Amino acid sequence: MSEPKGTPKSEPQGSKKPDLLRGEEVLKGFKKKIDDALKELRESEGGRLAMEAQRLTPRSVHGDRPFPEANAVLAQYNKVHSHLTELSRKLDDQIFMFGVAVEGADKGFDRVSAEDSQRYWAIQAELEQEKRRAEAEKHAKDGKREDTGANDQDRPKL
Questions:
Q1: Terminus-to-terminus CA distance in the chain, angstroms?
Q2: Which residues of the chain carry a pLDDT beneath 70?
Q3: Full-model pTM
C-alpha cells in the first residue's frame, strides 16, 4: 500500500535528516481549506460586515416616540452586538494569519505578498498590544485586591 503524496516518511537509521518532511500538496490543500473557511466566514451572517449591518438604533426600535425601557434593552443589545462583531473580526484575522503562516511554510516567507505580510504584522502588533493591555488590567485588578485585603480564600469558588 503506498502512502499519500506529501506524507512524512521515515528516514533510514543513522540518517541525520529530520523525520518530518513537508509535503507541498498537503500544505496547498490545507491552505485551500483555510482560504475556503475564511471566505465562508466573510460571506456568512457571522461575518464582520454582516454583523456590522445588524446594528440597531433607537429610531429603528421605537421610531420617534420616547420609550426609555426599549433604550435600556437596546443599549445591552448593542453592547453584545459590538462584542460579537469584534469576535468575528478577530476570528477572520486569526484565520488569515494562519493562512499566511501555511503559505510561508509552503513557498517560503520571502514569497508572501507585501500586502499580506503587512496585514499579518499589523494584526500581530494589535495582538501584542491587546495582550499588554490585558496583562496591565489583570495587574491593576490584582493590586486592588491586595489594597482591599481581599484574597482568593475569601471568595466563593465558582
A1: 53
A2: 1-24, 145-158
A3: 0.61
Structural domain includes residue 140: yes
Contact (CB, 8 A) for 47 and 93 = no
Q: Give the structural domain span for 79.
A: 24-144
72-88 burial code (b ≥16 CB/10 A, e <16): eebeeeeeebeeebeeb
Closest to 75 in 3D by CA, of 54, 95, 58: 58
- Count up the domains in the chain and report the number: 1
Residue 136 domain flag: yes
CA atoms within 13 A on the CB side of 53: 9
Contacts of 83 (CB under 8 A, 6+ apart): none
